[in-house]
């Protein structure tokens, strides 16, 4: 495929040739029409000149016609004939019967056929209006015009004058010939100039291509294209490419961190799983020890499955395949359900869990995903709040939105770390495990989470058209707030008073999945 430079040059050459041809055609037509107009004026002057000679002869009381031969009929007098010979081109003087009283020298030089054609046209030509007519002879074309003799005493009826149209066609031909000679030089210079100008205009593009080729090797994404202060299209292109490379650099960095963190998270449980399996397979291991090892292996397997499920959820969200089954969902029953789960988890962790504010509101969303969002915020608050602390749930309705907030008195997040809380594999405690006090006063090591819960929660909130925000101070606790848009009145009216959860046999909602997720 030809380069852009050649395409621009070819397009310019084609446009130039088309313009020149159109200009030449218009100029040729205009010059030809002007030539014919000039020729009409000239032939009219010839007829008026011959008529004036005849009128002067009449005014001087001289005879204008004589009978030279009874067969031929009358002709103009020799003196008048000599005067008419001074009128150039074709001149005919006719009487009322259409007989030729005088013919000019040019007429007499024509062959018999052409003379007959011209005589016939002269007889048919009328003097009314003074319009000119074209007469085509064997070798040429004439433009003829007739003038009437105004003195009825004489035998002369009209005077016909003619001029060859070759004079009118000669100037356009010369013009076209001149343009054909000059056009190649003009075209050559113009195309050469266009090729040079296109090369200079595309030179910055070549530089951009070279810079981008050097940057896109994957190791030089920190480099940026120079941006001129002119603000032209190329400067805007450089700014756009720089912005794109910044996003690519961030994406590559996030991908590298994601790969490293995922590998780290999978490495530990896989190592533990391998050790437990090897211990269970050891010949000197007692059945009780084998059961303990297999139980630990099962826990690590569950942990790996949870991690894979979380990664799959985030991958689907990145691809825009975050499945939501939207329906009107009343949040008050859902919040109470989550609150009861939080009471159970908080009691086991030695925390006080309260819900001082719970206002009824209906949103259009996925009940399962919204429940996952609320549970993630609750379990996250319980996990990072020491024993004796407090966790508070708030469901508040606003004018056009509803907020679900979870406040805790936990370890909190520093101001420097707060912008990263929704990134994948990020945790407030930078180590992968933490020590918590046990019931007998000692401390045990508890494995931390994966750092994916808040990222998933943010995706759920955004998929519902809402937001998830965080406020925290180190050592003072944190507050996470999910804001969701309210459902339209027509949609909210279709909601039944029940929360839609399928009850168990004792009439209480089934929370076994909540407890298993919180335990993991």
How is this fold's topology laid out?
Layout: H1 4-59, E1 65-69, E2 73-76, H2 78-84, E3 90-95, E4 100-103, H3 105-108, H4 112-124, E5 133-136, E6 141-148, E7 156-164, H5 166-215, H6 233-281, H7 287-318, E8 327-330, H8 331-349, E9 352-358, E10 362-365, H9 367-383, E11 390-397, E12 401-408, E13 433-437, E14 443-447, H10 453-463, E15 467-473, E16 477-485, H11 489-492, H12 512-519
Parallel strand pairs: 9-11
Antiparallel strand pairs: 1-2, 3-4, 3-7, 5-6, 6-7, 8-10, 11-12, 12-16, 13-14, 15-16
Explain this structure to me?
It is a single chain. With 520 residues, the chain is an alpha+beta fold. 52% of the residues lie in helices and 19% in strands. It contains twelve helices and 16 strands. The strands form five sheets. It has a five-stranded antiparallel sheet, sandwiched between helices. The longest helix is centred in the first third of the chain and has 56 residues. The C terminus is likely disordered.
Major β-sheet profile? 5 strands, antiparallel
Counting structural domains, the number is 3
Radius of gyration: 53 Å
What is the spatial order of strands in the main beta sheet?
Answer: 4-3-7-6-5
Are there runs of 5+ residues with pLDDT below 50, and where? 430-447, 496-520
Mean pLDDT: 79
- DSSP summary, beta strand count: 16
Give the helix/strand class: alpha+beta
User: Number of helical runs?
Assistant: 12
Descriptive keywords:
single chain; 520 residues; alpha+beta; Beta-Lactamase; Heat Shock Protein 90; 12 helices; rod-shaped
Please sum up the structure shown.
The protein is of the alpha+beta class.
């Amino acid at each position: 495929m030809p380069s852009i430079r050649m395409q621009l040059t070819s397009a310019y050459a084609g446009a130039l040739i088309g313009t020149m041809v159109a200009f030449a055609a218009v100029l040729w037509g205009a010059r030809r029409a002007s030539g014919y107009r000039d020729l009409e004026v000239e032939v009219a002057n010839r007829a008026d000149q011959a008529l004036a000679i005849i009128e002067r002869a009449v005014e001087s009381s001289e005879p204008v016609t004589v009978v030279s031969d009874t067969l031929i009929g009358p002709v103009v007098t020799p003196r008048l004939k000599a005067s008419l010979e001074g009128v150039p081109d074709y001149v005919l003087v006719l009487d009322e019967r259409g007989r030729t009283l005088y013919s000019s020298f040019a007429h007499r030089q024509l062959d018999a056929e052409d003379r007959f054609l011209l005589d016939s046209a002269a007889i048919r030509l009328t003097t009314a209006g003074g319009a000119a007519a074209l007469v085509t002879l064997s070798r040429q074309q004439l433009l003829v015009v007739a003038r009437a003799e105004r003195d009825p005493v004489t035998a002369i009826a009209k005077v016909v004058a003619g001029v060859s149209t070759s004079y009118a066609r000669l100037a356009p031909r010369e013009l076209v010939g001149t343009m054909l000679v000059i056009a190649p030089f003009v075209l050559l210079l113009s195309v050469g100039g266009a090729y040079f100008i296109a090369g200079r205009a595309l030179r910055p593009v070549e530089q951009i291509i070279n810079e981008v080729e050097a940057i896109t090797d994957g190791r030089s994404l920190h480099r940026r294209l120079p941006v001129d202060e002119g603000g032209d299209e190329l400067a805007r292109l450089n700014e756009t490419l720089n912005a794109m490379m910044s996003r690519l650099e961030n994406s590559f960095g996030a991908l590298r961190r994601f790969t490293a963190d995922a590998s780290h998270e999978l490495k530990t449980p896989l190592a533990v799983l391998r050790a437990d399996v090897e211990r269970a397979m050891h010949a000197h291991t007692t059945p009780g020890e084998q059961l303990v090892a297999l139980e630990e292996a099962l826990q690590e397997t569950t942990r790996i499955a949870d991690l894979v499920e979380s990664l799959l959820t985030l991958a689907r969200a990145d691809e825009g395949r975050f499945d939501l089954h939207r329906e009107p969902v009343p949040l008050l029953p859902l919040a109470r359900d989550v609150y009861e789960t939080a009471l159970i988890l908080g009691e086991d962790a030695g925390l006080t869990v309260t819900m001082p504010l719970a206002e009824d509101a209906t949103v259009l969303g996925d009940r399962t995903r919204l429940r996952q969002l609320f549970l993630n915020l609750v379990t996250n608050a319980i996990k990072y709040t020491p024993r004796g602390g407090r966790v508070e749930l708030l469901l508040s309705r606003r004018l056009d939105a509803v907020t679900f907030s979870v406040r805790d008195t936990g370890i909190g997040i520093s101001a420097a770390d707060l912008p990263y809380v929704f990134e994948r594999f990020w945790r407030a405690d930078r180590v992968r495990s933490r020590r918590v006090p046990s019931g007998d006063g000692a401390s045990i090591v508890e494995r931390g989470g994966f750092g994916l819960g808040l990222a998933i929660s943010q995706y759920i909130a955004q998929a519902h058209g809402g937001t998830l925000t965080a406020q925290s101070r180190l050592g003072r606790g944190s507050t996470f707030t999910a804001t969701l848009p309210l459902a339209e009145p027509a949609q909210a009216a279709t909601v039944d008073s029940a929360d839609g959860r399928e009850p168990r046999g004792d009439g209480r909602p089934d929370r076994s999945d909540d407890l298993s997720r919180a335990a993991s």
